[in-house]
Amino acid sequence: MNSIRKGVVTFQRYVFPQHKALFSRLALAQTPTALFITCADSRVDPTLITHSTPGELFVDRNAGNFMPPFHGENASEAAGLEYALKVLKIPNIIICGHSDCGAMKAVWHPDKTKDLPAVTRWLANGKEARRQVMAMKLPEDRQLEAITQRNVVNQLEHLRTYPVVREALAAGTLSIAGWVYDIEHGKVLEYDSAADAFHILQL
Questions:
Q1: How far is the C-alpha of 48 from the C-alpha of 173, rounded, in Å?
Q2: What is the pTM assigned to this prediction?
Q3: pLDDT for 15-71, tens place per residue?
Q4: Shortest CA distance to 54 belongs to which of 86, 74, 81, 31?
Q5: Strand order in the sheet with 197-200
Q6: DSSP E strands: which ranges in the chain?
Q7: What is the C-alpha to C-alpha distance for residues 98 and 48, in angstroms, rounded to an integer?
Q8: Which of 3, 4, 103, 203 lies 20 to 30 angstroms, CA to CA, from 42?
Q9: Would the pLDDT of 72 be above 80?
Q10: Under the phi-then-psi rule, with left for phi > 0, alpha for psi from -120 to 50, and beta for the rest, what region is 32?
Q11: Which stretches within 94-200 are classed as H helix?
Q12: Are 174 and 167 a contacting pair, CB within 8 Å?
């Protein structure tokens, strides 16, 4: 805890003064350019990956970067999307998975969470990705990567089940993207729906 406290003091003394004008503007309002839905993994830093400044990303994090399908009862996800799109008028949504994901490892090998009932229930959001990949009969050393990628694709499909998202897509006011961040190599792969494949993100 002391190292975290020291970090706060460093921010207050040295970082904040250098960006005082930015934080003065942010104190009045936020106008993020994207809703970034990603994993809670400590190794994933959305602002670092995207080279963003405070105020640019509206971040939603959970284990496995899941977006459960809309069913009228998942108030947290529905409320976050509604606020992002209706109030903040955010024009982009990114769902970002990552390499070496603990949640995806547990989806791959469900026995790992047999003594964690709450975790098991949450990871059910990824079981379709596992089923799809296992049906491909891939070599074992390619299965985790494939599950990670397929999970992002499935969560994009779930995202489209939300009325507020469908409305924004139909109006042409929203773009959505699926990414996978490679921690070791610093690369981001982006989903190409036409090819049903992930490619290194390029401009």
A1: 26
A2: 0.95
A3: 999 999 999 999 999 999 999 999 999 999 999 999 999 999 999 999 999 999 998
A4: 31
A5: 57-62, 34-39, 92-98, 175-182, 187-192, 197-200
A6: 34-39, 57-62, 92-98, 175-182, 187-192, 197-200
A7: 14
A8: 203
A9: no
A10: beta
A11: 102-108, 117-123, 127-136, 140-159, 163-171
A12: no
In the block, tokens 């791959």 appear at 108
**Alpha-carbon separation of residue 184 from 20, 99, 126 (angstroms):** 34, 8, 23
Q: What is the DSSP letter of 179?
A: E
Length of the chain: 203
- Coil, helix or strand at residue 72: coil
Mean pLDDT of 134-162: 97
33-195 is classed CATH 3.40.1050.10? yes
Q: Please, are residues 23 and 16 in contact by the beta-carbon 8 Å criterion? A: yes
* Residue 38 burial by Cβ neighbours in a 10 Å radius (0-12, 13-18, 19+): buried
Q: Supply the angle between the helices 75-82 and 163-171 in degrees, to the nearest 10.
A: 30
Sign of CA dihedral 154, 49, 40, 30: negative
Number of H helices, E strands in the chain: 10, 6
- 155 φ, ψ to 5°? -70, -30
State the DSSP code for 57. Answer: E
Tokens of 139: 């070599």
96 in helix, strand or coil? strand
